[in-house]
Amino acid sequence: MRLADFIEQNTKRILEEWVQFAEKSCAAGGQMDIAALRDHAVAMLKTIVEDLRTPQTDAEQVAKSKGEAETPAGAEDTAAEVHGAGRAQSGFTVGEMVSEYRALRASVIRLWTEDSGSLTGADLEDLMRFNETIDQALAESTERFTEDIDRSREIFVGILGHDLRSPLSAIIAASDFILQTPKATEKHVALTTTTLRSARRMNDMVSVLLDFTVGRLGSGLSIDARPADLKAIVCDVVQEVSVANPGRQIQFSESGDLNAVVDTGRIAQVLTNLINNAVQYGTPKDVIGVSALGEEAEVFIRVHNRGTPIPAAEIGGIFSPFKRLSAPKTAESVS
Question: Is the domain 3-153 a CATH 1.10.490 member?
Answer without folding.
Answer: yes
